[in-house]
Design brief:
By secondary structure, the protein is mainly alpha-helical. The protein has a domain of 140 residues: Four Helix Bundle (Hemerythrin (Met), subunit A), CATH 1.20.120. The protein has 10 helices and 3 strands; from the N terminus they run αβααββααααααα. The chain has a 3-stranded antiparallel sheet with strand order 1-3-2. Helix 4 crosses helix 6 and helix 9 runs antiparallel to helix 10. The chain is elongated, with a radius of gyration of 18 Å.
């Protein structure tokens, strides 16, 4: 999800919409906003997350915020601290690399399976999804970019028939700061190139090339996020 190791870190995108509606999955939406802030270092390790302030900022009651923090504690994203409530957990370069390695390995396995089953109609469906992403990028519409990118991967994973693996991949991508990438034209160029190469590999029936094409986007994403985190002063631990 990025270009090369020589480009400079880009400014962080603003957090996903900060006024949330009242829906059954509200606590997960709150957790999603907080994940984005943690993964992009808008909330730094050790910083307290105050439930009242977070609820007021997001326009929700304290209950979904409390539920979201319990979820994030289970994920290791936040920690409970005596007399401080919850604080942001540690995040290192190794954590980022591991998250994207897991995503890339799952995506590459799905791509190899897809290479053996995809037909011409499904390739056309993927190509149409890429065209929607390309149009959104040309318009500079960040919400549409994020939506089109999600739609491409959802379509791709469905074709593979790898239902369980696709579910695990979707769970892992909750840590991906999609809005930050959607605001980055360099990321968009890499994503489009990756998708074009993936479809070309399917047309050639080349499973290895398909796996390499899809893995490119995840190695790029890890490096791009690592650069951003380094620019914020977050620790650069390898341990």
């Amino acid at each position: 999800m990025r270009s090369n190791g020589t480009s400079s870190a880009r400014p962080m995108a603003s957090s996903p919409s900060l006024r949330l509606g009242r829906r059954p999955q509200l606590s997960e939406e709150v957790a999603s906003v907080l994940r984005h802030k943690i993964m992009t270092a808008e909330l730094l390790p050790g910083v307290p997350i105050r439930m009242d302030e977070t609820a007021a900022e997001l326009g929700v009651s304290v209950t979904p915020v409390r539920e979201a923090l319990l979820t994030l504690r289970g994920e290791g994203m936040v920690e409970s601290a005596p007399h401080r409530g919850y604080v942001v957990g540690d995040l290192s370069r190794t954590d980022v690399e591991d998250i994207f390695w897991l995503q890339g390995e799952a995506a590459a396995r799905i791509a190899r399976r897809t290479a053996g089953v995809i037909d011409s109609d499904q390739r056309a469906e993927l190509a149409a999804a890429v065209d929607r992403l390309r149009s959104a990028v040309a318009d500079g519409d960040q919400d549409a970019i994020a939506e089109a990118e999600f739609d491409f991967h959802r379509t791709h994973n469905r074709i593979s028939g790898s239902t369980k693996l696709a579910w695990f991949l979707l769970s892992a991508t909750r840590y991906t700061p999609h809005q930050m990438y959607a605001s980055d034209p360099e990321w968009a160029a890499v994503a489009l190139n990756s998708h074009d190469r993936l479809i070309a590999a399917y047309e050639a029936g080349d499973a290895d090339a398909a796996a390499a094409a899809v893995a490119l986007q995840f190695t790029d994403g890890a490096a791009r996020l690592t650069r951003h985190l380094s620019s914020t002063g977050i620790r650069d631990s390898e341990s």
